[in-house]
# Entry
Amino acid sequence: MIVLSYGVTKSGSTLAFELCKAILETNGFPQRRLPDGVVFDGHRVNFFGNPSPAQLEAMHAALAPGERIAIKLHGPLSVESRAYLDRAIAEDSFRAHINYRDPREVCLSLIDAGATIRRREPQRTRGFGTIQNLEEAARFTIRQLEDLRSWAGLAAPLFLYYNDVAFETDTVIERLCGNLGLPELTPASREAIKDEVFNRAHTLKNKAVIDRHRSDLDEGGNRYLLETIPQLPEFIERACRQRDYRWLAAD
# Structure
């Protein structure tokens, strides 16, 4: 089984991916790095962008008998790849997890990441390093939410909201185990997994603060994002507060 861990950039997607990996390893599924070409060349972990059906097939073909491997993804999902995954998930050869966060906090995290990269690499002229303010972060986040919609249309994904992954982790561990067809973990195993993920894994953490938009976004910035990002008020209410995944998946 290939477990695709897709996430909106700066949504805690690396945290969710590392949590999935740790659960698999605890259940006897080592997380080896797949060959270059099957996943992106040179990355430290199994990572990919927007896979075609042929690339999804190559991922599954790279598995040894009995293996279960998690792959982290950003980017959109094409109509053709979505149809392929709907069939593959029904056949138990794939699973898909979709990680997202309040877009206002995605914007704040993008600005943090941009500042960090500019301190380390002053000459950086691409990627997060170009994001310096809410206007630039909002443009990036709008594209990310379009990508999210393409994944949300899958027939049977597991949706993971940042506040749950980061602050209700025991519940998310149970949900992940159920989605992967794994037995419920003992309290000791859950604590060991959380210790590994929060204290040792490379999760790209900026600020691990619940609802940080309340403290880090002023009234003017909040109003700007609510007016700039399409459907943001409804997204906050339906996807973030109500966890209404049917709304999130609506085309």
Summary: Strands lie at 2-7, 47-48, 69-73, 94-100, 158-161. The chain has twelve helices and five strands. The longest strand covers residues 94-100. The chain has a mean pLDDT of 93.
